[in-house]
Description:
Blueprint: H1 10-16, E1 23-26, E2 30-34, E3 44-48, H2 60-80, E4 85-89, E5 103-108, H3 127-145
Antiparallel strand pairs: 1-2, 2-3, 3-5, 4-5
Amino acid sequence: MAEETHQSCLFCKIASGELAARIVFEDDDCLAFLDHRPVFPGHCLLVPKHHYETLIDLPAKLIEPVFRDVQLLARAIETGMQAHGTFVAMNNRVSQSVAHLHVHVVPRRRKDGLRGFFWPRYPYKSAEESDVVQQAIRAAIDSLKS
Length: 146
């Protein structure tokens, strides 16, 4: 897909500021925010600010910046959420709920109960819970960048 913003795209609306999201990271190329239906608290989505439907559509010049940001986010989620590790995933068309390239970064803990790819999703219990998680990840990003 072209490097334009698609007016009907949910993630383009978040990137442009038209829709609110719990943003944890932003640079010139990407934006990361809390998934509103996380597998676990701290589950984030990282998206390029410009509209590309899949990894196949992402220009070669953006591969390094996008995955550098994914790496930073994975470190920050481990630190901020005191997780043992992360699960990093991306769908291309099949099971891609929003047709805008996005990378899931999910905090994982040993014996957290996840098996396979059919995972329940649980919304945050309150805005306060979302705020705490958002701030923990932001603080970890600030710490990692300094």
